Amino acid sequence: MSQTYSVEINHQGTTQTIQVAEDRTILDAARDAGVDLPFSCSAGVCTTCAAQITEGKVEQSEGMGLSPDLQAEGYALLCVSYPRSDIKLESNKEEIVYDRQFGQPS
Where is the chain membrane-spanning (predicted)? Predict the structure, then answer.
């Protein structure tokens, strides 16, 4: 039997809490719960589903679209993020992640 964690999602000014099993991605569980989070490739390659984890830990080893530096700062791609603790996150971080990862240095 898999562990289930509480995931608090702050999305567009609304906060919702869902339960996510450790063997499900946060994006899949959120969509099943009716939380309309942005996503595109669902393979951890693009940055559409980027979020910032403000509390807790995720496992996202399948994600290639996020540098280790950004992961260390708490950014995650929700399509490949599996909860490893109770989590609080802020969605809609695509622009920040994309600019920081692919933008031109000033």
Answer: none
